[in-house]
User: Fold these one by one.
Assistant:
Number 1:
Amino acid sequence: MTYPRPSLSIAGAARQGTGSTITVLDPSTGGALAEFTGASAEDIGRAEAAAAHGYRIWRATPAIERERVLRLTAQAMRADRSRMATLIVQENGKPMREALAEIDAAADTFDFYAAEARRSYGRTIPARSPGARMATSREPVGVVAAFSPWNFPAINLVRKLAPALAAGCAVIAKPAEETPATAFAIADHLGQAGLPPGALNLLFGDPAEISSALIASPVVRKVSFTGSTAVGRQLAQQAGAALKRCTMELGGHAAAIICADADPEAAADLIAAAKFRNAGQSCNVASRFYVHRSRYDRFVARLAERARAIIVGPGSDEASGMGPLSNARRVDAMSLLVSDAVQANARIVTGGARLERPGFYFPPTVLAEVPASAAIMRTEPFGPIAPVAAFDDIDEALALANDSAFALAGYVVTDHAPTARRLAQGLNAGAIGVNTFTVALPEVPFGGSSASGWGHEGGPEGLEPYLLTRFVHEA
Ligand code: NAD
């Protein structure tokens, strides 16, 4: 399938920007897929005006009609899943079956929030005098500036769009410049399903220029960002200065604790399937492994065996178990993390060096005996490296796991219920998986604290950031 020339979307119409040229790369070859022009200051202004207009129409649209538009979008995405997944494979690099699963999850998210659109209930409060009425209603917060990254080009965007649109907000989104076509396809389906022009606008360009302009704009009332802690910190400062609400879904560095009672081979099988999905480029993935010393050698051997068995190749090739990383920055980051760990006396069990071929390839890598001082135990790797260390008792494991600036996800593998409960209570994380590595689904809240940001996406909690509460007292 030929990759389409990406474009901005303003007031429901595709248009080239009048700013700088953006080149989209194919991660499986490193070559150019397409060029297009990003947004200039004038384009950003046009998107703001379109969103202000779209918001007036969309907020006045009954919730049941908003539900209908979101459901039709979900249906259309499912019908179009193979084309949309191909776009993800082309611009992000992941294997086709993962891209298909991502489209399905995005469609499920539209369905979940379609139903939630009808559930933004207010309440009646007993009044203080006869005949009086005291009631609250939930109102959309206004126009939302939404910034989504390249690792899950569909789901990360839809986890913002679906609740914002369900609430009656209009959105100006700036998805990652690396993955514009998936975002455009989603916007296109929303438009075809009946979303009024201007209720969603897409901008691409210079991220800092666009975010600064949108956060300062009087049109925008809410900021939602998914990405790195460093950028989140900047945007939160700007949003704070402008007194705008914000949701910050930032990085994670989830610990997985493999306990003495766990079957080390079964644990390694479960972890190999989760860890190398999306080439490890996921904020909730387990990225530090603490294994009870009695299980350590068997766990490391099996994880390395599983890692070696993964065929690394283009996402379009059915045999590929793992695709390339999404950009060259990640490959460089992996090389630096490995050399730092080796200097700190870690052992490379498998992988460890970029694959010498065109494209952004780094193999599934297992590092053993990684000391807590190594950079990979402190920095979010966001790639296919599994650093492993041994522990002797549960308190030590908890202390190691919680010795992190991040607090997003945490995992436990154990067959012992009291140990599971103790660790689930003791881990400093917003989402915890016990004998599972699935913690982000449309119907569940997901969000972190500390360097992982604040606020939730998913579940009924994911609608809240897009709603204001209004109180009316009728005497
Ligand atoms: P980055 O920090 O420059 O960018 C992260 C994301 O933020 C990208 O999508 C980018 O387009 C966007 N961005 C950057 N500057 C921005 C700005 N001023 N305003 C608005 N958006 C802006 O780096 P990167 O190389 O793309 O990613 C590096 C790190 O980011 C990763 O190692 C990982 O820690 C983190 N990350 C996290 C997630 C997540 O799901 N939480 C997703 C992607 C990247």
Number 2:
Amino acid sequence: METILQTLIIQKATEFVRNELENESSGHDWYHIYRVTQSAKTIAIEEGADLFVCELAALLHDIADPKLNISEEVGLARVNSWLEQNEVPRDASEHVMQIISTMSYKGGGKPPMATLEGKVVQDADRLDAIGAMGIARVFAFSGAKGRKFHDPSIDPRMDMSEEEYRNGEDTAINHFYEKLLKLKDLMNTNYGKTLAMGRHQFMQDYLDRFYAEWEGKK
Ligand code: ADP
Ligand code: NI
């Protein structure tokens, strides 16, 4: 159970993030945050992780994104000052900062999440890129970029070199193979893995239907 102070902080964080991301269209809108937070809570309970830290880190995890700030450092400093201004206890605020800075790390070879709570939040974020939500987001992203959702001349099920991929226009269907179908093997927690398996199977079934319908076979 969360304390009254924790519940108040979660309420304020929700308001802050909702205001910040209401008009975001890069795939990191408020409802992405909402879903990640809901999944983080579900996994945290199953895994016995600190619910308050997971919930707060999930709410704030995209605020420092370089797409929304001049730089990642500036973004992280904003999150830090929000935590200070809202009197989040020091151990929790340090933990949240540690999670968010590891998650937003864009350099090569992402460092693994150091704590159970970090693993939970990263799993929750990855879950939103797969399953029914992942399918919605991949097509929304592709459409927003004005791309085709599928191009049979660059069948991603065939072996292709990195270069061939880059030269071909990235389609929504391509992105399943480049990233989405790989995410289930990157899950950190047991419960995250269980959820990812169901969502992965759903994407696999979807792709099977997609190719069958493309050829009028279903
Ligand atoms: P995050 O920052 O949440 O790890 P991204 O910013 O890479 O993820 O992607 C946000 C969403 O847009 C995800 O659901 C992802 O699948 C989708 N997306 C990213 N790149 C592409 C792409 N090249 N084609 C289609 N969808 C994409
Ligand atoms: Ni995210």
